[in-house]
Amino acid sequence: MAIEIKTLDELKVMRRAGLLVGQTLELLRASVKVGMRTDALDAIAAANIKRGGGTSNFNGYHGFRGTICVSLNDEIVHGIPGDRVIEDGDIVSIDAGAIIDGWHGDSAISIGVGKVDPADQKLMDVCEESMWRGIAAGSSGVRLSNIGHAIEEYVKSQGKYGILREYGGHGIGTEMHMEPHILNFGKKGFGPEIAPGMALAIEPMITRGTHKTRVLKDDWTVVSMDESHGAHFEHTYCIAPDGKPFVLTSLDGGRMQLAGLGISVSELLE
Ligand code: MG
Ligand code: MG
Questions:
Q1: Structural domains of the chain, with CATH
Q2: Cis geometry, peptide bond prior to residue 180 (ω within 30 degrees of 0)
Q3: What's the rounded Cα separation, in Å, for the pair 23 and 45?
Q4: What pTM value is reported for the model?
């Protein structure tokens, strides 16, 4: 299937959805505390998405129950909100999404709560920076695999981390998960050419140990096979009609982070 190409007006609606997702994640970052149940975070997210005029793209997705995914420590992605209580030092990975007027946003952050192991903090920092490197590498006119190559190259330069292989980024727009699938590793110069009007969700998932994972009996939660801690960051970005990127789920459109990597963002989506 061809990759969906959006008009500027469609990207502007995607920006509204993306901003709502970004604001919801910032609210969750400010709300998360030791002693809180993960379903309390879910309730905050649900209320905020509703208040912002959006609907959840996670709730009901292949039967998923929850507005967000909350994954702790060795859980890396797809954790189901519930009665689990957040403890001091936990890594809390939150994946959130929203739909506005039929257009999707998707973004994730990992947060260290309380007194965090410095090695866990570094894991999260490496994961987040690798996401920005991936976005910076995914400019207009380059091949798709340059994104995963940049992510892998950066992660490997920072230490011995496992990069998940069964999960990756994706195209996004009128659906949450669309063509193309985006690996978080690999060689440069393969796959379709990135072009104006494309929107892509870039989401590295890494662990302090193995890249191998298994799914818990709840059929959703993805944990590392060796119980090493994991981190997950995600942003949805697009290539605007002027050929410049814009990070739809970042509050500042990715301006600050991408400037640090020598990339200027589009002015068309302000
Ligand atoms: Mg996501
Ligand atoms: Mg995603």
A1: 8-259 (3.90.230.10)
A2: yes
A3: 10
A4: 0.98
